[in-house]
Amino acid sequence: MGNPPHIPSSFGDISNTNTYNKNDNHSRDRMKGPDGGDGPPWKMMVFTLMLMTGLVGSQVAALKLSRHEYHSWVEVVEKLTMLCLSFIMVNVGYEFNLDKSNIKSYAKDYLVAMTAAGFPWIFVAAWFLYALPGPVPFGSALVAASFAAPTSAGILFSMLEAAGLKETWLFKKAQILAIFDDLGTILLMIPLKIVVEGFKWELTADAAIMLLLLCSAYVKLHELKLPSSSAFTMLYSVLIVGFCEGMYFVTDRYLPMDAIRISVLLPAFTMGCITQVDHHAESDTEERIKTVISTCFMLLVGLSMPSLFIAGSDHLSFQALAGHVLAVSLLMILGKMFLLFCYKDESDLRTRLGLALGMCPRGEVGAGVIVISLNMGISGPIITIAVISLAINLVLSSGFIVAVKHLARPPQASKGPPRKRSAKPATVAFTIMAITACIFGAVQGRRSNGAAQVFTTWPMPPGRQACGTLPAQLGGPRQAFMVALPVYPQILH
């Protein structure tokens, strides 16, 4: 019959992402846990412990250190976090492959990534604008809410690899989506800064540098024969951090212009992309070094969290603050559920749900957005809610990855009598959306002292059976607010 036709993949020359080189069998078997799972469970436990330890340490430092000492502490943690993130992203670039004959698929991936990042941002911004007491400036709400958009590429890649999912379609797709996701968020900050601070020509320099890096990664993809051992990778990381920080220092101190600050994420990824790597030269020692760096990164991400005790929310009661944090945390997750509707021709619903949950962890990029918001003079309850929501998301990161690992496994055939089927993931997701809508209505109805309109979930007719209220101050015609919550999850298949 001959060989089957080659099907091009959107991740390069990968005909089956669940296969790997036979020479790696020994290392793959060694990485399996005692339960026969796909990855060492101790890695996940250590990563989780480091995240929690770092989170606690960040709050202890904020309470115990003086203002000057805390500023120095933040600077040191920030530089070390950038160094570890750069190391991780260079390695991601080493393994990134691009099928230049199928560029259209990447346009689709970029659109999906931007939409999956945009929904949480829009949802949280709307909550800040309409649910918080007192007026919130439109630009401030947009900037502060952008912490909900980016996926933490460092946390995602490290934990998915620790879970043994590196060779799966889910990991390959999450890899490119997370990169586009973070890139889109960085680019999004440019127009947001224009909205808040006005146009400044330095913002065009930021965009030009990013475009130059992307073009370099595309044109010189794996063409430069450079050493790629862990020692040289760390050297590249040090140089990248030095370049980014040096540019910021020079433009801030010595040039009559606003400072230009470039995130290390894109330069580090570009460095990995242009390097030609000999994957057969990798050893167990190299893997151990990567694990140590990833472990340190988890600790540093926790340590880089801003203080939860930010002034500006004293007028919010504990119950109100908890309600806002819960709503924002749910909206951050629900926005990523957009991925359930994508890639129906490439994977089943179970895998798409795993992909959506895998994109939920936020971390260093979200914390960086909050710091940018503080530097732009944004303060008050929106920052407090953002910081606490980000901390909770950090706590849930391991749970997201455990769920992804479970969903990535093919369902096992049952030997016993058939059990009653549980609710489909789509039904669960839509139920959570409905509950969030009810919370939103309850908060807004209380704020407007009952002067509100009724809203319902489709196809329920308006009336006393409605699940909540929509305040009149949202504007527009006084009609029932139709929340798009289809009750037929079959549309996702």
UniProtKB/TrEMBL annotation:
This is Cation/H+ exchanger transmembrane domain-containing protein. The keyword Transmembrane applies. The keyword ATP-binding does not apply. It is found in: Membrane. One of its GO terms (molecular function) is antiporter activity. Residues 1-37 are annotated as: Disordered. The chain crosses the membrane at residues 40-60, 110-130, 142-164, 176-195, 231-250, 291-312, 318-341, 382-404, 425-443. Keywords: Antiport, Ion transport, Membrane, Sodium, Sodium transport, Transmembrane, Transmembrane helix, Transport. GO terms for cellular component: membrane. Its main location: membrane. It is a multi-pass membrane protein. InterPro entries: Cation/H_exchanger_TM, Na+/solute_symporter_sf.
